[in-house]
Specification:
CATH superfamily of the largest domain: ATP-grasp fold, B domain
Helix content: 25-40%
CATH architecture of the largest domain: 2-Layer Sandwich
CATH class of the largest domain: Alpha Beta
Shape: globular
Number of domains: 6
Number of strands: 36
Radius of gyration: 26 Å
Mean pLDDT: 85
Strand order of the largest sheet: 14-13-10-11-12-15-22-20
Oligomer: single chain
Low-confidence stretches: 473-493, 496-506, 509-529, 543-555
Strand content: 25-35%
Length: about 625
């Protein structure tokens, strides 16, 4: 058995791997960048090695630094987690060449499945059904355009080296193909260093079904049943569950057998996932389920499989990497109940899911469900990495109970002051189609307006919150911590704000016997004293409002602001150019994703300060759009 393990990753997955390693008596080594110097995964490890500056390209993606850290600390093995270098065949080979154990599949297996076009051909040869499309070497715009027309719109453009929803575009119309192809290639090149693409037919009523497989060095391969990951936004998974609702035993047997054939075709060792797309227009049927790709690593959603099988997949990884056989045979594996997982992110659904960065003043769970996280109260959510706060996983005897448990845990969790997708997730779990398991990958896009609408808190709830606050009568000291609160025993009339998900509402309170509450507009807060309440599952901040803060420019007055720190990767306009409402002006890259900034109304571009490749800070004015004169 491995005695010391280096985890070549950060955050939640690094903490997850360390937890199992600790239970197995395996010492752990963390690596960290400047931004992660005080991170939870660093403090959870037995040893930690600094590997460079905050950008991942200068730290977590530099294989030589990670291998050197393993040598320096005497680690025998490297576990890559997921993301970063987990599917980098050159890194896997370099680990082995350095005389270390690679906790993952053999480099040849990664290589075989690393390019989606070659993997699809390999699967066809192995008798695994694949989605119709184009896998050719000719990558010219002309050839790809012609093939898209032959397949028929809508088509899906996919980066051959892609993953995690990046480098993918659904194209509805022929006239959009060239622009979407360019955007897809640019994102793929930035994320994977490879801008080649393949084309696939867009499946009607698509469901994303994947099968967990596991192989060892003794020729054994088993499956651990399927997961449903159909609830996605921009091809990125939001909710995952196991087993797939509506899956009958005959279809399960066929799809899982196909997944095992796929793994055996590449002589697979370790944890892997075979991903399928299902045409669910007539329910789940084996003849309408097609291979998409193989992920040659542990998946983000692996906990739902662990919950229904009772298997610790990280333990299996460490045992198999140490040369042991898979601990259980296929006939010893079974499904127990239902599990569902939500990814809680620091992001603002009401503003296009823009990431929210900063310090987590409060992070509190009621822990009635499994919580996998890499942050804690006081941690920083930085702009350099994925803004996941936690994975929340609920397991119950049936699907209804699992959904109820997940909603309960989310509702009574407290995250402040960063914006999160919590309300979005709860609404999604309450959606009638989700409750009835009428799932497909387009559900969130269709329901997005209702799912992302700012939460309304009733006047009665606001009044109750205010009266609670008055009864508490906490002393107010402007020099104290912002979390201290204040006493309302001085002037009779006080002005303050009630903040719901950090949207500040200004109120005036006159302490009459009736406890009157008068709303009088919206204001910016400037260093307010604060009391926090959990009101019907929503964290409410009651703050003393001091009217001495300056306002900020916004799209309402034509100023186009950077919504977060990032890099300008495209400037589509010039100073003085006439634009229409909705025209793309600037593309910002942040949190590994592209964010297009558009014109808020018809007008003319002025004060253009954004430059290609420039790094900008949050709320930097990138340009101004002057309204068109009537």
């Amino acid at each position: 058995m491995i005695s010391k393990l280096l985890i070549a990753n950060r955050g939640e997955i690094a903490c997850r791997i360390m937890r199992t390693a600790r239970e197995m008596g395996v010492a752990t080594v963390a690596v960290y960048s400047d931004a992660d110097a005080k991170a939870l995964h660093v403090r959870s490890a037995d040893e930690a090695v600094h590997i460079g500056p905050s950008p991942a390209a200068e730290s977590y993606l530099v294989g030589d630094k990670i291998i050197a850290a393993a040598k320096e600390t005497g680690a025998e093995a490297i576990h890559p987690g997921y993301g970063f270098l987990s599917e980098n065949v050159d890194f896997a080979q370099a680990v082995l060449d350095a005389g270390l154990i690679w906790v993952g599949p053999k480099p040849d297996s990664i290589r075989a499945m690393g390019l989606k076009d070659a993997a699809k051909q390999l699967m066809m040869d192995a008798g695994v059904p694949v989605t119709p499309g184009y896998l050719g070497e000719d990558q010219s715009v002309e050839r790809l355009t012609k093939e898209a027309e032959a397949i028929g719109y809508p088509v899906l453009i996919k980066a051959v080296a892609g993953g995690g929803g990046k480098g993918m575009r659904k194209v509805e119309r022929a006239e959009d193909f060239a622009a979407d192809l360019e955007s897809c290639r640019r994102e793929a090149k930035a994320s994977f260093g490879n801008d080649e693409v393949l084309l696939e037919k867009w499946i009607t009523s698509p469901r994303h079904i994947e099968v967990q497989v596991f192989g060892d060095s003794h020729g054994n391969v088993v499956h651990l049943f399927e997961r449903d990951c159909s609830l996605q936004r921009r091809h990125q998974k939001v909710i995952e569950e196991a087993p797939a609702p509506g899956m009958d035993e005959a279809t399960r047997a066929e799809i899982c057998a196909a997944a095992v054939r796929a793994a055996k075709a590449v002589d697979y060792e370790g944890a892997g996932t075979i991903e399928f797309i299902a045409d669910a227009s007539e329910g789940l049927r084996a003849d309408r389920i097609f291979f998409m790709e193989m992920n040659t690593r542990l998946q983000v959603e692996h906990p739902v499989t662990e919950e229904i099988t009772g298997v610790d997949l990280v333990e299996w990884q460490l045992r198999v990497a140490s040369g042991e056989p898979i601990p259980l045979k296929q006939e010893e594996l079974s499904i127990n109940g239902h599990a569902i997982e939500a990814r809680l992110y620091a992001e603002d659904p009401a503003k296009g899911f823009l990431p929210s960065t900063g310090r987590l003043e409060i992070l509190d769970f009621c822990n009635d469900a499994r919580i996998d996280t890499g942050v804690e109260t006081g941690a920083e959510v930085s702009p350099y990495y994925d803004p996941m706060i936690a994975k929340v996983i609920s397991h119950a005897p049936d699907r209804h109970g699992a959904i109820w448990g997940l909603k309960h845990e989310l509702k009574y969790s407290n995250v402040w002051p960063l914006k999160t997708n919590k309300s979005f997730l709860i609404r999604l779990l309450d959606n009638p189609d989700v409750l009835e398991a009428a799932l497909d990958t387009g559900l969130i896009a269709r329901e997005q307006e209702a799912l992302t609408e700012p939460k309304h808190v009733s006047d009665r709830a606001l009044s109750d919150a205010l009266n609670w606050f008055v009864r508490e009568q906490v002393d107010f000291d402007p020099r104290a911590s912002p979390m201290m609160g204040f006493r309302m025993n001085a002037p009779r009339r006080r002005e303050f704000t009630l903040s719901i998900d950090n949207e500040a509402r200004a109120f005036a309170y006159d302490p009459t016997p009736e406890g009157q509450l008068f709303e009088h507009g919206f204001r910016e807060n400037d260093n307010p004293a604060t009391q926090l309440l959990n009101l019907d599952g929503e964290l409410i901040a009651i703050k003393l409002w001091r009217d001495d803060g300056a306002g900020h420019a916004s799209a309402a007055d034509g100023a186009i602001l950077a919504p977060m720190p990032g890099k300008v990767i495209a400037v589509d306009v010039s100073d003085g150019q006439e634009v229409k409402a909705g025209d793309r002006l600037i593309v910002l890259e942040a949190m590994k994703m592209e964010h297009a900034l558009t014109a808020p109304f018809d007008g003319k571009v002025t004060e253009l300060s954004a430059a290609q490749d420039a790094q900008v800070q949050v709320e930097a004015v990138l340009c101004v759009v002057e309204p068109a004169s009537d």
